[in-house]
Design brief:
The structure holds two protein chains of two kinds.
Chain A: E1 4-15, E2 18-29, E3 33-37, H1 44-51, E4 59-64, E5 67-68, H2 73-77, E6 80-83, H3 95-105, H4 113-119, H5 135-147, E7 153-157, H6 165-181, E8 184-188, H7 192-198, E9 201-206, E10 209-214, H8 216-223, E11 227-233, E12 239-245, H9 251-261, E13 264-270, H10 274-282
Parallel strand pairs in A: 3-8, 3-9, 6-7, 7-8
Antiparallel strand pairs in A: 1-2, 1-4, 4-5, 9-10, 11-12, 11-13
Chain B: H1 3-19, H2 21-40, E1 49-54, E2 70-74, H3 78-86, E3 92-95, H4 100-105, E4 113-115, H5 122-139, H6 164-167, H7 169-193, H8 196-200, H9 207-232, H10 240-264, H11 268-290, H12 303-317, H13 321-350
Parallel strand pairs in B: 1-2, 1-3
Antiparallel strand pairs in B: 3-4
Classes of the chains: A alpha/beta, B mainly alpha.
Chain lengths: 288, 351
């Protein structure tokens, strides 16, 4: 058995003239969290649909747990959990009924629905109709639904989008718990901090292609710049800012000169963000 | 097919159907209303024709009139006669001139005035005119030199005509069945609209499981309701097995049509719009039974004709397998075509 839970080989899909996903190649190891980043329309959702068997690739193939997805859709889908970007719960049913339905569809024998709901912070509201839930509660239930079958691979499409900080944090904790359980997590998000914090590696997707794929640290090393930012007291006690780029041959001298010639009020180091790197690579913002 | 999955989906659909207040209410309300209407309507047919007569002098031959089915009331004045006919008290009014006997004796033609309302059926007008001509001949001693013989084709229902409420049974049955088209189509359409279908399709459930569950739900709901209705209104008293078979085929028809409607509709409003069109079209054959002679042979292009005709033949004329086998065969053919077309259309939409 391969150590890779997900393999994408030349995965391609087009809608008419528009190439949504253009020959992308990557692997995700078992137990790894891959952050899949890109602006709207980059092809992330189409890629997920091909990986989860909802769309048949026009070219290339997706392999999950050593199974070609197109040829083993049902077997693959029995092993994965998917949390969609858009809420798609049965709103006239309760949380318990929603989860029990999916447990039956996945043929899950022993299943403690209340424990799962407690885990996502929905205790006490288990029997309320979902239509009466807040957006955060619905999103937590969506995550719970994707966990019903204890999937080996978890696909989470913008799981914290538009949520309050507490709900977002609760979902992030669950993602880390799932990784600890051994699940592989394929996470798409707009939130750079979240991707940076959770992902073992991140893939940047732009116009259907993967433009970079590495650990956040390596990406920052390769494409980002570290800098010192200082506030100095200028003429008439007015504060001015100075920036010194780190890791260059001139850096020590520039730091020396700064302290020798200027009256430094504050100083702090600054590291490149994933957003900065994405802009550098594509000329676009992730939030576009 | 995975029967565990199909059972879970069908149970979910049934639960959601009755949680939709509109469909739950309209289902129960419709069923109860049709049953009430059936029992409120008269169970017998009044075949007598009530006619008002104004005459200062009544010719002796008029005493021959009270035959079976004709009731003649004497009215005091011509104005009272006109008023009574206008109010619908009589199907027709006959006003005889004061000199009728003299004129008949002289071989002249007395003017007899017949009053009808504007909406009087043409057959009533014809019958009264013929009756008056015949009476005139009798009065003058010159009876018509013809004899007539009436041959009844099919079961002789003279004296035991089929009450309107029994003629309406096929109409109620088809409306009950067809309403489920909207219910089932709406359930499917909502699943697409709200994205829950997408969630179902990334489970081990197959599209075949999905269609099987929806079909069970559609057939079950439609068949259950219409059987309950027929049992209460006495539609199952003769040839119950044939009737159940016909209604079951009706349930399958509903499912095929619902799949087609769901593939065309985008939301509940468009389901309603398409559903109403379908209900009206498929109910047309039932009106042909309610108002015989109003619908011609073209109605046989509608699949519901074969259901309606079977229900009517069995419930009203005690028809057997030999009489209606061709109806059931054609209905089965229509069902196969509709279900196949519905599944194909819906599958395309899901993809």
């Amino acid at each position: 058995m391969s150590a890779d839970a997900i393999v994408a080989e030349d995965l391609t899909y087009w809608y008419g003239q528009l190439v949504a996903v253009d020959h992308i190649n990557f692997t995700v190891a078992q137990g790894e969290i891959l952050g899949f980043l890109g602006p709207n329309g980059a092809g992330k959702t189409t890629a997920i649909k091909m990986l989860t068997g909802q769309l048949k690739p026009r070219a290339g193939r997706a392999v999950l747990m050593d199974m070609d997805v197109s040829r083993n859709v049902e077997r693959v889908q029995a092993e994965i959990g998917v949390c969609f970007e858009e809420t798609n719960l049965y709103e006239q049913m309760s949380a318990v009924e929603n989860l029990k339905l999916f447990a039956r569809l996945f043929n899950v024998g022993s299943f403690d629905v209340y424990a799962l709901l407690e885990r996502v912070g929905l205790s006490g509201r288990e029997k309320d109709r979902v239509e009466h839930y807040s957006k955060g509660m619905k999103q937590r239930l969506m995550v719970a639904r994707s966990l019903v079958s204890r999937p080996r691979i978890l696909f989470l499409d913008e799981p914290t989008s538009g949520l309050d900080p507490a709900s977002s944090e609760a979902i992030r904790d669950i993602i880390l718990e799932e990784r600890q359980r051994g699940a592989t997590v394929f996470l798409t998000t707009h939130d750079m901090m979240e991707a940076d914090k959770l992902s073992d590696r991140v893939a940047f997707m732009n116009q259907g292609k993967i433009v970079a794929l590495d650990t956040p640290h390596n990406l920052k090393q390769q494409y980002g710049k570290r800098a010192l930012k200082a506030s100095i007291s200028g003429k008439g006690s007015k504060l001015e800012s100075r920036e010194i780029v780190l890791d260059t041959p001139q850096t020590p001298e520039e730091i020396h000169n700064l302290f020798a010639r200027e009256k430094v009020v504050t100083i702090h180091s600054e590291e490149a963000t994933l957003e900065d790197i994405f802009i550098k690579l594509t000329g676009r913002r992730l939030s576009e | 097919m995975n029967f565990g999955i199909i059972r879970a989906l069908a149970a979910k659909d049934l639960s959601l159907y009755f949680r939709n207040k509109f469909y739950a209410l309209i289902t129960v309300f419709g069923l109860i209303t049709y049953i009430i209407i059936y029992f409120v309507m008269p169970s017998t047919v009044n075949e007598s024709l009530k006619v008002g007569l104004y005459a200062q002098v009544v010719p002796p031959v008029f005493e021959l009139i009270p035959e079976e089915g004709l009731v003649i009331d004497m009215v005091e004045s011509e104005e009272a006669l006109i008023s009574a006919v206008t109010e619908g008290k009589y199907a027709a009014g006959i006003a005889l001139p004061a000199d009728i006997l003299d004129k008949l004796a002289q071989g002249l033609k007395p003017l007899i005035t017949l009053y009808f309302t504007a909406d009087a059926p043409v057959e009533v007008k014809d019958a009264i005119e013929v009756m008056m001509t015949e009476l005139a001949y009798l009065q003058t001693g010159q009876p018509l030199a013809i004899e007539t013989s009436a041959e009844i084709l099919g079961p002789d229902k003279i004296g035991e005509q089929i009450p309107t409420r029994d003629r309406m049974r096929p109409l109620f049955a088809i409306v009950l069945l067809m309403f489920e088209t909207m219910g089932l189509a709406s359930l499917i359409s909502e699943e697409v609209e709200h994205g829950t279908l997408q969630a179902l399709l990334i489970t081990p459930m197959t599209v075949t499981d999905l269609f099987a569950a929806k079909a069970i739900m559609g057939i079950g709901l439609a068949f259950g309701q219409v059987v309950l209705f027929m049992a209460i209104v006495g539609g199952l008293s003769s040839q119950p097995l044939i009737m159940l078979t016909a209604l079951f085929l009706g349930g399958i028809l509903v499912t095929g049509v619902a799949f087609l409607v769901a593939s065309l509709a985008k939301d509940m409003m468009s389901v309603m719009a398409w559903g109403v069109v379908v209900i009206i079209a498929l109910s047309v054959p039932a009106f042909g039974i309610l108002f015989p002679g109003t619908i011609t042979g073209w109605v046989k292009v509608l699949p519901s004709y074969y259901l309606v005709d079977t229900v009517h033949q069995v419930a009203s004329f005690d028809a057997g397998w030999g009489d209606i086998w061709s109806n059931l065969l054609i209905l089965t053919g229509f069902n196969a075509a509709f279900v196949a077309a519905g599944i194909m259309a819906l599958r395309r939409k899901l993809q």
